[in-house]
Design goal:
heterodimer, A: 225 residues, alpha/beta, six-stranded mixed sheet, four-stranded antiparallel sheet, 10 strands, B: 298 residues, alpha+beta, Alpha-Beta Plaits, 2 domains, 4 strands, elongated, binds adenosine-5'-triphosphate, binds magnesium ion
Chain lengths: 225, 298
């Protein structure tokens, strides 16, 4: 599903983001990306989104080489890749339902499909009764659920999350974690960058540890350490 | 297909930035209105020029010092010209009578004159307006024609007036065109600035659109539509104002000052309005396109 080959990313005045990264993640895997602040987790995720190009190496997602992908194909790549961030990225002046519908609308889906899919996905994340609330009227955990719903509403084959529980208390984090786990069980590959030691240790999933841009550990059923 | 989405986004954005939007609309309005006025003037002058050109008359003024023999000789000469259809002689007294007639109610100004300073003249009607220059030029160097030395102002014919009018029109066109150009640049810059502001105001939306895989054109369209709206609204108001100006102001000017060569029917209004509206729309799309190139990195 994801293949990094000798990937390096150097930011402008010679700052190492990633260095010599070789990673292969299978379809349907659940995988944690851990490491200290500045170790390169976000760089890894932004490379997957093709927000910028690696300085060296090549990245393949869902069988498609990102460096050879045409600019016009980029939107379709991103439709197949849901993403969730620490800061939710919701539109404050749109209701929960409209926030999710927005993602469908701007990818050109017909109104009928939108009317069907939005309540369906919001029920799945447990927000069926908050559809018409504004994001401000929701708790942080609920807002993150909305953002997960938006990322998953198109049923992408890959879901990436950059510290999705970074702003949440432990109990709420567990809820989000369970949601991501449920999504993974539908066959979706999930990659989650996190600082949350307890969560990683409890889940016993594959753990990729980064330090100063290098992979220092990659083990199945691993611990945060 | 997604027209409603783009439309709503564009309108919301216009309303949110209404001060800038109004400023942009007003500049488009002014530039397109000035363009329209300029064209009204242009068409009017154009019509006046061709009217004058088609006038068949040449007037030849004769020096007060000319003897009756010389005057009659000139008359015979004129009658012998093959292009001439008709000749009339206006004596000094007739000229004064005509002047008195045109001064109805103010005849007393003539009392200030000592004697009759008006020259006698021949009024020549031609068979074909094409020959007017040829015929008129025959009198330029005639010693009994009342020319100020170095000129030929003793010969009056449509061609001469139309040359002068043409010169005025040319200056007018150059001046008007540069003014419109300046206003056009100003409107493009203002529209591009409104678009810049709305790109800034909607940067979260743009970020999310990119994230969920909206195509570049899908992201751009609402901004372009915003620019086009701004341009169209400004141009539509300008078009209405141009029509009203032509209909009422030009007509009332013509009524009060009939000697001016204006005529509200001289203007092909349909094409003018079309031009103004297309012009405004173009300004709008160019303005927002510029801002998108500079400020919306996709
Ligand atoms: N846009 C940028 N320009 C320059 N340097 C950058 C940029 N983004 C990240 N870096 C640098 O690259 C390195 C890796 O950053 P990255 O954001 O990937 O770390 P991270 O693991 O996500 O950290 P955190 O846990 O704090 O989010 C850091 O040294 C960071 O300072
Ligand atoms: Mg990060």
């Amino acid at each position: 599903m994801i293949r990094f080959e000798n990937v390096a990313k150097t930011y402008d005045p010679n700052i190492v983001g990633l260095e010599d990264v070789n990673i292969h993640i299978e379809r349907g895997e659940f995988c944690f990306l851990v490491g200290h602040s500045g170790s390169g987790k976000s760089t890894f995720i932004r490379l997957l989104l093709k927000e910028f190009e690696p300085t060296e190496g090549s990245i393949t997602v869902a069988g498609r080489n990102l460096q050879r992908m045409r600019r016009s194909a980029l939107p379709y790549h991103r439709r197949n890749l849901g993403c969730v961030f620490q800061d939710f990225k919701l539109l404050p002046n749109k209701t929960v339902a409209d926030n999710v519908a927005y993602a469908l609308r701007v990818t050109g889906q017909p109104a009928r499909a939108i009317r069907r899919k939005v309540p369906e996905i919001l029920n799945l994340v447990g927000l069926g009764d908050k559809m018409n609330n504004l994001p401000d009227e929701l708790s942080a955990g609920e807002q993150q659920r909305v953002s997960v719903a938006r990322a998953f509403v198109n049923h992408p084959s890959l879901l990436v999350a950059d510290e999705p529980t970074g702003n949440l208390d432990p109990d709420t984090s567990v809820g989000i974690m369970q949601l991501l786990y449920r999504i993974n069980r539908t066959g979706t590959t999930v990659l989650m960058a996190t600082h949350d030691r307890e969560m990683v240790d409890k889940m016993r999933k594959r753990v990729i540890a980064l330090e100063d841009g290098k992979v220092i550990r990659d083990e199945d059923k691993g611990l945060y350490r | 297909m997604h027209f409603k989405f783009f439309f709503n986004e564009a309108v919301n954005s216009l309303v949110r930035n209404w001060v800038m939007s109004v400023a942009a609309i007003v500049t488009v309005l002014v530039s397109m209105f000035v363009l329209g006025l300029g064209l009204i003037m242009f068409f009017n002058f154009q019509t006046a020029i061709s009217d004058l050109r088609n006038k068949l008359e040449v007037e030849v003024f004769i020096k007060n010092t000319a003897s009756p023999d010389e005057i009659n000789g000139l008359g015979d000469e004129i009658r012998a010209m093959p292009e001439v259809k008709d000749v009339g002689f206006i004596s000094k007294d007739e000229a004064l009578d005509r002047l008195r007639g045109s001064l109805k109610g103010h005849e007393d100004v003539l009392d200030a004159l000592s004697g009759n300073p008006l020259p006698p003249s021949y009024e020549i009607t031609l068979k074909d307006p094409q020959q007017i220059e040829t015929v008129a030029s025959r009198f330029f160097d005639n010693p009994i024609v009342d020319n100020t030395p170095g000129t030929h102002d003793g010969v009056k014919y449509g061609g001469e007036t139309s040359e002068r009018l043409l010169k005025v029109t040319t200056y007018f066109l150059i001046g008007g065109a540069s003014f419109v150009m300046l206003l056009t640049v100003a409107s493009v810059l203002l529209i591009s600035n409104t678009t810049r502001l709305s790109i800034f105001a909607r940067r979260r939306e743009v970020e999310i659109m990119r994230l969920v895989g909206a195509t570049n054109w899908f992201i751009r369209w609402p901004f372009i539509m915003e620019g086009i709206f701004t341009g169209m609204v400004g141009a539509a108001i300008a078009a209405i104002m141009v029509m009203l100006t032509n209909r009422f102001i030009i007509e009332s000017v013509v009524n009060k000052m009939p000697f001016l060569p204006f005529n509200s029917e001289a203007v092909p209004m349909f094409w003018l309005v079309l031009l103004v509206v297309i012009g405004g729309t173009l300004l709008g799309s160019v303005g927002s396109g510029l801002a998108l190139r500079r400020f919306l990195k996709i």
